[in-house]
Amino acid sequence: MTHATFHDLKDTSVFITGGGSGIGAALTEGFLRQGAKVGFVGRSDASDFVDQMEAQTGNRPHFVQCDITDIPALKAAMAECADLNGPITTLVNNAANDQRHSTEEVTEEFWDWAQAINLKAYFFACQAVMAGMKAAGGGAIINFTSISYMMGNTGYPIYTTANSGINGMTRSLAREFGSDKIRVNALAPGWVLTQKQLDMWAEPDALAAHLERQCLKEHLAPDDIVASTLFLASQASRMITGQALVVDGGVAVTG
Questions:
Q1: Per the database entry, which stretches of residues form a coiled coil (predicted)?
Q2: 145-184 residue pLDDT tens
Q3: Which of 1, 25, 22 is nearest to 218 (CA)?
Q4: CATH code of the domain made up of 7-246
């Protein structure tokens, strides 16, 4: 897939949560190909991926193994990447977990775990970059949410609750930090067929039914999300903030 080039992203400091697999890996590659300095975290070792990215793009990302529910560890990883690459001026909160569950089976422990991954870590990552972005004269935060809450999907009510919370947080932070030229937007993908989705939930009947709901009759791949993220990070979107950009092939038509 051919992506647009955003020249202003070259040599900028980018931090991505969950940047070693799925959509996150595509995002890491996308920013590297723009010439950005990319740091990312993930729970699983991504050393091979780092080597692969350097070989393919000529630009080596910096990886810190980290569980984002451990807020001190997340902040330490972000500080390490900022020390190496310069103050983070693009934050992509991508890491999430959409484990299926029913309302009846939810315990307090599961609630806390799900919110820690899908909402709490987003907030504290935003908090951690604010001072550096302000000092740098501005920045961009892209918070990944999902169309699942817009559609009122069943099967993961704690996940959709967090998705909705991400949008509320995005709007409030956009207004709070807009005077510092910090833009905060949400990006809501549709059903993107990552390897995890294909392995766990992408049954033929479900895929066919979802495709029928899309205006564009083609399944989304991780690369389809990259260009929109680059746009929101770049000065091409310099007057866009507090918004939720939906990239779903036309399932949840908004406006």
A1: none
A2: 998 888 788 899 999 999 999 999 999 999 999 999 999 9
A3: 1
A4: 3.40.50.720
